[in-house]
TrEMBL record:
UniProt GO BP: fatty acid beta-oxidation
Cellular component aspect of the GO annotation: peroxisome
Substrates-to-products reaction catalysed: (3S)-hydroxyhexadecanoyl-CoA = (2E)-hexadecenoyl-CoA + H2O; (3S)-hydroxyhexadecanoyl-CoA + NAD(+) = 3-oxohexadecanoyl-CoA + NADH + H(+); (3S)-hydroxyhexadecanedioyl-CoA + NAD(+) = 3-oxohexadecanedioyl-CoA + NADH + H(+); (2E)-hexadecenedioyl-CoA + H2O = (3S)-hydroxyhexadecanedioyl-CoA
Enzyme nomenclature, EC number: 1.1.1.35, 4.2.1.17, 5.3.3.8
Source organism of the structure: Haplochromis burtoni (Burton's mouthbrooder)
Molecular functions (GO terms): (3S)-3-hydroxyacyl-CoA dehydrogenase (NAD+) activity; delta(3)-delta(2)-enoyl-CoA isomerase activity; enoyl-CoA hydratase activity; NAD+ binding
InterPro entries noted in UniProt: 3-OHacyl-CoA_DH_CS, 3-OHacyl-CoA_DH_NAD-bd, 3HC_DH_C, 6-PGluconate_DH-like_C_sf, ClpP/crotonase-like_dom_sf, Enoyl-CoA_hyd/isom_CS, Enoyl-CoA_hydra/iso, NAD(P)-bd_dom_sf
This protein's name: Peroxisomal bifunctional enzyme
Start and end residues of each 3-hydroxyacyl-CoA dehydrogenase NAD binding domain: 298-471
Amino acid sequence: MAQYTRVSGSVGLITLQSPPVNALSAAVRQGIVDLMQRALSEPEVKSVVICGQNGIFCGGADIKEFGGQMSGPPLIPMIHAIEAASKPVVAAIEGIALGGGLELALGCHYRIAHSKARVGLPEVTLGLLPGAGGSQRLPRLIGVPAALDLITTGRHVTAAEALKFGLVDQITDHNTVNVAVKFAQRVADQPLDARRISTYPCLCPSDVAVLFEEVMQRVRRTARGAIAPIACVQAVRAAATLPYNQGMERERELMATLFTSGQARALQYFFFAQRAVGRWSMPSGARWDTSKPRPVHKAAVIGLGTMGRGITVALAQAGFSVVAVETQEKQLMEAKQKISGMLERGAKRRGVAPALDKINYGRNIQSVADADLVIEAVFEDMALKKKVFQQLSAVCKPSTFLCSNTSGLDIDQLACQTRNPELVVGMHFFAPAHVMKLLEVVYGPKSSPLAVATAMQLGKKIGKVSVAVGNCRGFVGNRMLKPYLEQALFLLEEGATPEFVDQVLEEFGFAMGVFRMSDLSGLDVGWKVRMADGLAMPDPTTGQPTRLRQGRRYSPLGDLLCEQGRFGQKTGRGWYQYDKPGSQVAKPDPWLHSFLDEYRARHALVAHRIDHQEVLERCLYSMINEGFRILEDGIAAGPEDIDVIYVFGYSWPRHRGGPMFYAATVGLNKVLERLEHYYQAHPDVPSLQPCHLLRKLVASGSPPIQKWREVIKKVRSQL
Ligand code: NAI
């Protein structure tokens, strides 16, 4: 909806009214069309201002209308009518002008923005392009290079940056609507011909063909299979090379292709999934809207290795006072230096002062006594962690929340070491912790809703996407990773090479294939865990590595590499070879190929031809099957939680929506049928056995993913 008022005698003020972000719903579009007509027909009105209520101009198209039957006036003719109006129209941009909101503003003759406003065309993040003339007007207004940057990345820019680009005409610190009204009065008699962006020539640099080629190559490299960024480049190329009307036709064609693509559906699903994870719930019935967090003023981090440093930086950058503790003097000095460097680089990028003074360093655990919340990030060793939790429980205030950054150990065992187990949760960050968006907040059987709510809120304050999950080995992300890694190793045993498996996974859209990723993280990390679990030992009778553990197939390949000192990038050798330790350029290693041949010969394994389909199905479907088990066990509340974890923590390609959404798009019956096929071929691999929930969903007619929770509830109630 929109409201009309006449202000200062001669200005028609149209206020968009559709909380929370004044999205361009059918009713809002109808309001704009009607009120523009009214303003143009009133003789006293000499100019028009369009603004949004509650300090927000417009958040863009109403995404809830996507996929439904289109009703109300379409956006493109509405924006054309504004641009063609005989009276000047000024956009008063407060808060945000995003997507369709910015396209509306580009149809206006002038744009005045508040200094704190942000503008952008984020359609690409939803698998679309700015399809209401944005791809054609923006390059005409700010030039091809800047428009390509904004449209292909979807990034939001500040008002100051928008002014620099010439995207807005003026910025103000005062009441934007008042400033826009005065401005509208001033320009009431000015000719409008030179203000209609669609009539501008598209100014191109002389080497425009080279520019487009370069941008297209870069976009293809980084898109990881997403088609929208490529369509965005094509649309801007149309603006640069075709007359406006033909450019609009190209924009329409490209948009039609994107709109019906599975990728747009996946990205729109993912948009809502990110919101859904904020509405967390626990099996006890505790929920986000009934559990109040407690404010955290002072936080502490114990252990300043890779993770502790990143966590300290994330907290300090968000304005928290942090006590950072490391027991070894040498490690403490090194951590101080690294943390200061990270803060300084971050501050330089963001144009702010580094938050160095937010951190107090110490070597004694006593120094965290008055912290409101402590995050432990010492080595992944249960005995050590238990000791640290006992110490924390003795020195901290009784009200202090005690959190562990463990990547998969039992939170309940840690809680049992403390006086107040209800205040213990897992806060599982991902490396590098000041960069990666994901945070798994892990509740144990004793964790209180207060502790979960507080950790979730802290996560939000430090800019993380926090997902509340239950307590089990590996939680959600690492638990699902296990069968995926396991299948990749089995594929090597059966004839594949690391580079082939990685190539298939990277073509699917992962930033890195499983073996390149293992080389980056360090093969020794998993090896230590397997040794602690008693897995990475040779058979006591033969002294040979065993391929069967407790009746299950086991691949000792990773252990054998570690025994050779091949820990990945850090040692210059792993699944690949590197020029020198620390180098990131992975090259196929002939040594490894012969090693695999010998291994197969030793174990009488006959290599067979493994194709793309087998790699994808075995790696992904076994992981998805574990995802269904996680849902069945109540470790994740819904498929959205799993999908958000995988996209933000494990580089799952966002345009495929996440593993559970992908399963739905492939078809649950197909996933079930292929798992059955592989399980029959490998009966000693339990992760390939289709789980009960997957069978139940297929038996229920494979409902859409939004309806899975109903089936999950039934399955859980029967357990
Ligand atoms: P790290 O080995 O880099 O650092 C551990 C640090 O803890 C060392 O600096 C050590 O001196 C210090 N430390 C040991 N005992 C201590 C004590 N009693 N008091 C204070 N400091 C102590 O290990 P990293 O990689 O940072 O891992 C830490 C935790 O985070 C582990 O539980 C790990 O599983 C988890 N994690 C690691 C991820 C990774 O990618 N490295 C990702 C997510 C979680």
